[in-house]
Amino acid sequence: MVTYGNGKVLFDGDADGFEIKYKGTIKITKSPDNLFIIADRRSIKGVMLDGSNLPSELFRYLGEFKLLSFMSVSSGVKQRERISLQGVDYWELDAENWEDDGSLWGTRNGTYLRGSKQIFNPHTIVVNNNLKTQYSAQFFYPNGRAVPANEPIHIHADGVVMSGGVHTKDSVVLKDAPQTKQQTSQIRRATTPATPASSGGGSSSGGGGGY
């Protein structure tokens, strides 16, 4: 079962990946290490990089988020999960002040808003933090110098790889080595729950979130 609301998405079950279809505009602000997430306007997919079970809290978010469907994935097999909504009722869904609302109970259209409204940004909708390079020269700095092995990096939703475990003003965009393009593609395949989850090749651990 998956439960969402109050800016959190929680999962109760055994699976190594998930696929969400949703309506709204959000920014994922936090997710556990070792859970690699990709997201776009209508879907969110995640996979455990080491093949372990999903954590109980998948991610936290800001914005308007209505979960339409949730599929858990175990060894490439999808299963639809029951959805439960928490922390949202009629008065919270009503955009007006409740004391000024003269409509009948449950007849008004509401929103599933947590925090401020968000503008969709394909670069920052989710950022996978605290990843590490697997070997020297997997990536290169803008000046052409090879990034050492076990160097902290983070990867944005649009595939941009940057220096540092989390984004700071000193973070720079890293250039893929030719052989890394195949590994990046392996990570993206791993984050597509239609296939069995695997650790891919782009990282050894990670956590999501924005900045």
List keywords for this structure.
single chain, 211 residues, mainly beta, 2 domains, nine-stranded mixed sheet, three-stranded antiparallel sheet, 2 helices, 37% strand
> Which term fits the overall shape?
globular
Number of strands: 14
Number of helices: 2
Distance between the termini: 29 Å
What does this structure look like?
The protein has helices spanning 90-93, 180-190; strands spanning 2-5, 8-11, 17-30, 35-39, 43-48, 57-74, 77-80, 83-85, 113-114, 127-132, 139-140, 152-156, 161-163, 175-176. With 211 residues, it is mainly β. Strands 1, 2, 3, 4, 5, 6, 7, 8 and 9 form a 9-stranded mixed sheet that branches. Strand 6 and strand 7 form a beta hairpin. Mean pLDDT is 81; it is low at 94-109 and 190-205.
Brief summary of the model shown:
The chain is mainly beta. It has helices at residues 90-93, 180-190; strands spanning 2-5, 8-11, 17-30, 35-39, 43-48, 57-74, 77-80, 83-85, 113-114, 127-132, 139-140, 152-156, 161-163, 175-176. Mean pLDDT is 81; it is low at 94-109 and 190-205.
SSE map:
Blueprint: E1 2-5, E2 8-11, E3 17-30, E4 35-39, E5 43-48, E6 57-74, E7 77-80, E8 83-85, H1 90-93, E9 113-114, E10 127-132, E11 139-140, E12 152-156, E13 161-163, E14 175-176, H2 180-190
Parallel strand pairs: 1-8
Antiparallel strand pairs: 1-2, 2-6, 3-5, 3-6, 4-5, 6-7, 6-9, 10-12, 11-14, 12-13
